[in-house]
Amino acid sequence: MSGLAGGTARRDAAGGPPEPGRHRPSRRRLTRRAREELHGRLLISPTLLVVGLVVLAPFAAGIMLAFQHVRLIDIRSLTPADLDFTLRNFTRVLGGPGFWAAARTTLVYATLTTAGSVLAGLALALALRRPFPGRGLLRGLVLVPYVLPVVAAATVWTTLLNPQYGAVNEMGRRFLGWTEPVNFLTTRGVDVAGLPVPVALGVVVLFEVWKSFPLAFLFVTARLQAVPRDVEEAAVIDGASPVQRFRHVLLPQLAGVLLLLALLRFIWSFQNFTDVYLLTGGAGGTEVVGVRVYQELVTRADIGTASALGVLMTLALLVPLALYVRLSRGEREERG
Amino acid sequence: MAATARRPRRPLDRHAVESAVLAVLRIVVIAVAALAAVAPLAYGIVLSVRPFADVVADPLALPRPGEVDVSSYGTALRDEDSGGFGLARFMRNSVVVATASTVLAVACSVLGAYAAVRLRFFGRDAVSGLFLAVYLFPGIVLAVPLFVLFSRIGLTGTLPGLVLIYLAQTVPVSLYLLRSYFRAVPASVEEAAEVDGCNRFQVITRVVLPMALPGITATALYVFMIAWNEFLFALLFLVGDRERWTVSLGIARLADFSIPAPVLMAGSIAITVPVVVGFVLAQRLLISGLTAGAEKG
């Protein structure tokens, strides 16, 4: 903010473009201010329009639908006169079998995915920071999982994990002495040395980390490029060790982007439907809330309960959003 | 400050140990990442050129040069009338949808991001807050009311309906991405352009866009990939209309039909190659520093 104001002052001091009919500086500043106001609104309006029509309005409609007793076949004949107010959807959703298990699964899934994705992206960005022959190629290659269409990736993984002819089971048989093929996508858990290990959930978490760490890598790398070299060089001269340089010079610079990444990944993973649906369809203890919404909407054809589930998901996501807003505001003030 | 905070007693030893450990870690990280990134795709490619019977007989074998069999690609791409699975048609649909979404989303978000970074206007902070809030709205949550509303106005089952949704879903993130890139363009350069007589539009097209080109490329790729890869809305809107299936929906549906694994892999690779190639090529744009040297002198 202060930077902008300063910029305006400097522009005026510099004289600005010579325009006919505007000679007095004070009047020119007013005109410039008014133009800025107009241009700002004009430039933002296409975005506002689209978001308003396709995000905000449907969101409001979703909240409304959560309190209606409405099924998929009622859509065609639905009119505003049919609106009523019922909490039936919420009682059905919250009391439904497996809801709390799904909520827990979603939380575990989102948390593990976020941590794995951000840490992997950070580690790789740091590892690829210094130039070496072939770095450009590597940077391109590691982005492959992110670029892969999710359906193609899920199809390849499903084939890799196939119990009959999948490479993973074959390697287990050949090198690890597995006697029975493991059906990774439907098995809830196995005991490894007496410890229960979730199999299908582990696979979907691994898949999501694998698919999303390149984005984290890309963000961190872009931010790393903007880190001023002189501070680091000064730290080297001051005798800071590599870990200290990371901890005290790089990490403060990267904290903002890491936080943004973590919150985005959490929010996206929390609502994930596609990846889980394509891999397991919700089997083997991987039924996340996103898959339940789809089942309510398509399988049970109940718009009311599907919307109610959506509202509950949104409520749960208010916490990370509030967190993000507060932290980002604090950061902006720090920067001045 | 960093050095005085801890006061290592023997800085040289500590440095040597840390450097050695980090050097090993660095190689491990790079190796694991490269393997993880490439192995599944390589596996898909290998499987796509082997006959299914061979795959079942020996899942891990590599085909000998004479055994490479690319007929699965033809089978996947050909139209249903010619005994294929119609993937070429799905790809055409996806190209149209993804290109339209990208052009519209980048246009909207360039203008919006510039306004949000450089212009003071009534409600600017509210706009920023709004786009932050849009992150919150989960796709699966919006899917329900969007499905209802688009059914009512007859947009389900159409490609423009999908474009509209992809546009709305990517514009807030694009704007967010671009904002940070635009912030990195020094205001002094823009001011200089204004002094030289550029109007607002010229400042955007001649100064901000070239300087933020890596960011804009990244944003465009992001939108294109979201649109090309998107599955949920394609599933909800188009599942009943095989003519309009997009690549994601097409492959996912084919996977349900229990078609032979090599054909499925061939289809997956075919829809992947254009995106991967485009991305790896454009990657060069992203690597150059943003505004290095722009403010000197």
TrEMBL record, chain A:
Residues 103-324 form the ABC transmembrane type-1 domain. One of its GO terms (cellular component) is plasma membrane. Residues 1-31 are annotated as: Disordered. It is a multi-pass membrane protein. InterPro entries: MetI-like, MetI-like_sf, UgpAE/MalFG_permease. GO terms for biological process: transmembrane transport. The chain crosses the membrane at residues 42-67, 107-128, 140-160, 199-220, 249-268, 303-325. It is found in: Cell membrane. Keywords: Cell membrane, Membrane, Transmembrane, Transmembrane helix, Transport. It holds the Pfam family BPD_transp_1. Its main location: membrane. Belongs to the binding-protein-dependent transport system permease family. This is Sugar ABC transporter permease. It comes from Marinitenerispora sediminis. The lineage of its organism: Bacteria, Bacillati, Actinomycetota, Actinomycetes, Streptosporangiales.
